Each structure stands twice: as C-alpha cells, then as structure tokens.
Amino acid sequence: MKLIRRKHKVSSHHSPSQRKYILGDNTSFIVDEAYNTLRSNIVFSMPGKGCKVVEFTSCGMSDGKSINALNTAITFAETNVKVLLIDCDLRRPNINRLLARKSSPGLTNVLVNACSLDDAIVRIDDYSLDVIFSGYLPPNPSELLSSEAFAELMETLKARYDYIFIDTPPVAAVIDAAVISKHTNGAVVVVRPGTTKKEELVNVVSQLEFADAKVVGFVLNCVDDEHSGYYYRGKYKYNYTYAYVHGAENAKSAKNTKSSSRSENQKTK
Prior knowledge:
Elements: H1 16-19, H2 29-45, E1 52-58, H3 65-77, E2 83-87, H4 95-98, H5 107-111, H6 117-120, E3 121-124, E4 129-132, H7 141-145, H8 148-158, E5 163-167, H9 176-180, E6 186-191, H10 198-210, E7 215-220, E8 230-233, E9 239-245, H11 247-251, E10 261-265
Parallel strand pairs: 1-5, 1-6, 2-4, 2-5, 6-7
Antiparallel strand pairs: 3-4, 8-9, 9-10
Helix pairs in contact: 2-3
C-alpha cells in the first residue's frame, strides 16, 4: 500500500466548526498518526484480496461515528486506493453536513429506482474519494437496508472499490447497523467515555456479534488528557487526544473480543 503525501486543504465550503474536525494539511502529527494507526489496524484485521467493507457505529447519538468514518475514509484514500463512503444513517444523516453538500440524490433514491447509481455517487476531489449520501429520509429505513435492492447494490459497489466505509445509526437505538453487518467485513464501534455506559457497550457488542459482525476495533472519542497517554491542544482551540483501546477487556471480558484500535478524538457526531 503506497502512501501519498497529503496535499489537499480542507474545503472552504465547510463552516469553521466543521472544518476543524476534518483531516487536512494543517492537521497535527498526533492526529495524523492516530488515524494512520486505525488504518493499519483495519488493514491487518482484514487480510486477503477483494473489497473490504467497514461499518462505523456507536452506542448513542453524537458519539463521533460520522466524523471518524469520514476521516478514516480520507486516510485510506491517501494511500491511492479506491475508496467509497456511504451514509447509511437514514434517520439522522450527517456526512452531507460535514461535507456541506445536499443529501439527495443519494442511497435511498437509488434503492427505489429514482436515480441511477452513477448519479448518486459524488466525487469529492478535495479528498480523492467518492461518497454516496443518504438521499431522502424514508419512513422505512430498516426495510430498505434489508432489501434485495440494497444487497445487489453492495455487490455492485464491491466490484468497483477497494474499501467501502459505511456510517450507520447507533446500534443501541435501531437495528440498522446489525442489518448492514451482513454486507461488511468488520465493524468499528465509536465510544465516548463519560457518556457511553459499560452495559450499553456490552449490549452493542452482543448485538453485533449475534448478527455475525466482526468487531475489528473500538475508537475512544472525546477523551481528555486524564484518560489518554497523549495530549495536544491545537490552534483550533479544542483538544485532540487519543488512546489505545482495549475494548473487549474493559467492556466485555466474557466475550474475549481480541481487536483493538486507537484514533483521534473529536467533539462531533
């Protein structure tokens, strides 16, 4: 996997509050290394050829799954592989907000044959990756995501890309993430210490494992300097911190989940 030097700047289309969370040429070394480590953990946890599909989920809302999914996709795109990011949170989509784009046409439009797949794929030149936004918000998200149309769409996309990252709703709220997991190679669970309760995390991991999802790691989000071995105060006036996450040992020792990840921590969805 060949690494390329980051040359892009965070798009001026983003608001200042959005811009500070997205990886760019002003991102600190510590934050870069955190995402590079997460990328390496994902790569080594999914050996073999063919497209790899990773879903990002969490226990609750505003835990940081969307920004971590986006930044991880950006980090992979920098290695010169074909990357697609899909917003499958059809209840509270956020990827289009982070990228300051319209949500439609998008995933739901394709699933109901309201537009072609090519019309729904948006090229984000700033980050050298493709995105499929949520589309219009349907009354039946779970039905759409468990449909044959979605299954066929995923097979089509796997033939086009090296890595597909999916932003899904929180597992504790709805079953969508578990439904989507049948089309993925692994799941990353974003945890927010101080907000996420241990029993909630145990329940989330249990639901994913019941759906035969492979939990490849956990991301600690919004960790302060007392809980992290590293601390950095950037010129954006907020804290970047990250830590190794031994999720199974702390959250579900009985299950003996063996994967762990570390990543940068930010205060956003």
